């Protein structure tokens, strides 16, 4: 299974060093001559510096916003008793199992037009943060495992609910936040349809997933598959870097499930 999963990635990496003719022929897996210049051309042709910054902005802003909103919601729902609490949990769960896909793009776009955010990446970020149900349930399970006695002790010491959340609950959610950050960053980084819709009239705001399509054709509409593969390999690097930093939290969470 690992081989079947990694083999297409290996083919893409090796193909990024081939010429377009050699890649199209598909005769060999290893390139006859290693063309490292493909990465340089892909970076220049697709304006990677601009698209990389846009992708980083969307992914980082979405990750931070999602973690704050989901962790505050998880803490509030677990610690407070209010009318509609069960309905709120049910609606959060329903959004994970009912997929409406592109059907909601038009109303979402109209909402951003009303807010005058249709020409800004903040519109994309807000909509991505709103889809935080999976992160909410991950953090909700972590909050439920934190003893309520800590809240009571903090309240006796004069701490408000917000102060308890910020100084006590949030630091204890470290492993859950790390895993949630990894999943949220990956989903935001790989998002394609929504950024495409919001940046059709703003090419400078396009992220990497949309900008890579600019490498598809070159002069005289000739296909440039080798440049697309080089660009795709470059776009994988930030995800690997995020995984390196979040790997410790991910391993802590899986190890904790076997404790005792």
TrEMBL record:
Residues 52-246 form the ABC transmembrane type-1 domain. Belongs to the binding-protein-dependent transport system permease family. CDD domains: TM_PBP2. It is found in: Cell membrane. Keywords: Cell membrane, Membrane, Transmembrane, Transmembrane helix, Transport. Gene3D superfamilies: MetI-like. The chain crosses the membrane at residues 56-77, 89-109, 121-143, 164-189, 227-246. It is a multi-pass membrane protein. PROSITE patterns: ABC_TM1. The keyword Cell membrane applies. This is Carbohydrate ABC transporter permease. The lineage of its organism: Bacteria, Bacillati, Bacillota, Bacilli, Bacillales. The keyword Cell membrane applies.
